[in-house]
Amino acid sequence: MSPEKSRHIPDNVQSYNNFALIYDQIALSRNHYERQANAVCDTFEVLGVSKSARILDASCGTGAVVNLLQGSGFEQVKGSDGSSCLLALSGGERSIQQVLWRDLGDAGRGDVDAIFFAGHSLPHAEASELPQIFAAAYDRLAPGGWIIFDMRNWVETEAGLREPNRATGIFEPLPEILVNEKRLWLAHRCDYDKDRQKITYRYGGGDYSQSLDNGFDEILLEYSVFSRHSACSWLKAAGFDEPKELSIPNWSYLFIAAQKPTDRER
Ligand SMILES: C[S@@+](CC[C@H](N)C(=O)[O-])C[C@H]1O[C@@H](n2cnc3c(N)ncnc32)[C@H](O)[C@@H]1O
After folding, report:
1. Domain limits at 191?
2. How many CB atoms are closer than 10 A to CB 71?
3. Do 70 and 148 share a domain, yes or no?
C-alpha cells in the first residue's frame, strides 16, 4: 500500500487511540463482545458461512470478538483495525494486524471468504468514503465471499434520518466504570450536524458535579447517517450481488450482507 494513502489517520481512529482503555471497559461492562460474537455467529448461520471459512473482523478493536469466534469453532478468523491502541489491548495476537479500511484490498487479495464490520463500526467512515471501502473489500474477498456490516436502523424525521428515542443536546449519565482500579463516572451526549451523528463521551474521577468544576475529559465519536438504500446501492456499484438486510435477535443494529459473485469481475 502506498505510504501516501495511509499517512492520514482518520479522526475517529485517533479518538479510539485516546479512548482505548475506557472503550474496552465500557464494552466489557455491557457484555458487548459476547453479544456481538453471538450476533455475528447467527448472521454467519443465516448466510451459510461455514466454520472453516476464512474470516476477517475488519474492525476488531481489542480482538475480543476474534477470540470468541475462534472459541466457538471458527477455525480461520483474523482481525484488523486502524487503532494501534485498541490493537495493543489484544495482547499481541498474531492473527491481528493494523489496517485502515481504505487499505483492505492492498493488505491481501482474494484471501478471505467473509469480511465483517460489527458494533456500528463502518458508519465511522464518511459516507463519501464508503464506495472506495466497499471496492477495497471486494478486492480482498475470494469469489463468493461475503461483506457484512451493521448500521443503525435510522428513522425518517423532518430533520433527516435520526436515531429513534434518543435525546439530543444533553449529557446523560452512564454506569460508572473501573479503569486501572480507578472509578470513573461517564456521561454521553448525542448531537447531529447534517448527516453526521456526534456522540461525545465525557468522563472523570471523583464526584460528577465537582469534576465539572475541577476537570474532566471528553472524546468525540462521529457516525455517518445514511439510508439502507444508499448502502445497498454503493455495494452493488462496487460489484456485489443484491444485498440482504438481516435483523438478528438481541442485536440492536441491522446487518447488511452482500456476496461477491463467483463468476464475474467488477
Ligand atoms: C465502534 S468500534 C467497534 C470495535 C469492535 N468491533 C467492537 O465492537 O468492540 C469501531 C472500530 O472501528 C475502528 N475504525 C474506525 N475507523 C476506521 C478506519 N478508517 N480503518 C480501520 N478501522 C477503523 C476503530 O478503531 C474501532 O476499533
Report:
1. 156-224
2. 10
3. yes
Does residue 20 sit within a domain? Answer: no
pLDDT band at residue 91 under the 50/70/90 scheme: confident
C-alpha cell at 265: 469481475
| Cβ–Cβ < 8 Å for 48, 68 | no
- Taking the C-alpha atoms of residue 69 and residue 71, their distance in angstroms, rounded to an integer, is 5
Locate the ligand 1 atom nearest the alpha carbon of residue 221 and give its number: 1
Contact (CB, 8 A) for 187 and 169 = no
Question: Mutate which of 18, 25, 35, 81 to test ligand 1's pocket (most atoms within 8 Å of Cβ)?
Answer: 81
Enter the DSSP assignment of 63. Answer: S
**Cell of residue 2, nine digits:** 502506498
φ and ψ of 191, to 5 deg: -135, 160
Determine the average pLDDT of the residues in 175-179. 91
Q: What is the pLDDT of residues 6-36, one digit of tens each?
A: 568 889 999 999 999 999 999 999 999 999 9
Looking at the structure, do residues 114 and 161 belong to the same domain, yes or no? no
Half-sphere exposure of 189 (CA within 13 A, CB side): 11
Any atom of ligand 1 within 6 Å of the Cβ of 161: no
Same domain as 106, residue 32? yes
Beta strand ranges found along the chain (DSSP E) = 54-57, 76-81, 96-98, 112-117, 141-151, 155-157, 160-162, 172-179, 182-193, 196-205, 217-224, 244-247, 254-259
